[in-house]
Amino acid sequence: MDSDLKGYGVKMDQAVEHFRKEISTLRTGRPSLALVEHIRLDYYGNQVSLDKVAALNIVDNRMITITPWETKLISDIEKAIMGANLGMTPQNDGKCVRLVVPPMTEERRKELVKILKKMAEEAKVSLRNIRRDANEDLKKKSKDGLITEDRVKRLQEDVQKMVDGASSKVEEHAKKKEQEILST
């Protein structure tokens, strides 16, 4: 990769990775710790994620248990889960919080696929914004006499290839997640 484009390639990779992490939180029919590990709660005045203050486990095909390191956090964990709007009601036994993952309805699956497609489009928009920034940077360098116009054209083609590659990765991740949502 050309040194003039290296930073933009890294930004595109980060955008794809962000999308991949973001869609991992979309619920499928089976429990996943990604549903809850990102939930944040107040811990001694700091906002921390749930996985930093509790052990998260998948007990069976329908339940996630959250066992806090300190039992006094149970009510805070319940409030944080309710605030996260997961569509699940936490239950506690004084030692841990249980989340029963309800079976997915066909309507909910279709709704999640729509959300997934919206997220994929947002990821592609961010890739196009990175392309725009790269092209503006290249034009500025050409105007300042730092690179030739022929080189600008070649580099712009390279930027487009990078965007196309990153977009296809986003599509790949989205397609895989869609199958996961519809099949479980």
UniProtKB/TrEMBL annotation:
Which terms are listed as keywords in the entry? Answer: Cytoplasm, Protein biosynthesis
Annotated Ribosome recycling factor domain residues = 19-182
Taxonomically, the superkingdom here is Bacteria
What does the record give under GO molecular function?
Answer: ribosomal large subunit binding
**Is Lipid biosynthesis there in the keyword field?**
no
Q: What is its main location?
A: cytoplasm
Q: Where is this region: Disordered?
A: 163-184
UniProt record, GO biological process = translational termination
Composition skew (Basic and acidic residues), residue ranges:
169-184
One Pfam family from the UniProt entry? RRF
> Which PANTHER family does the entry mention?
MITOCHONDRIAL RIBOSOME RECYCLING FACTOR PSEUDO 1, RIBOSOME RECYCLING FACTOR
Q: What does this protein do?
A: Responsible for the release of ribosomes from messenger RNA at the termination of protein biosynthesis. May increase the efficiency of translation by recycling ribosomes from one round of translation to another.
Family of the protein in this entry? Belongs to the RRF family.
Protein name, entry field: Ribosome-recycling factor
User: What is the name of the gene encoding this protein?
Assistant: frr
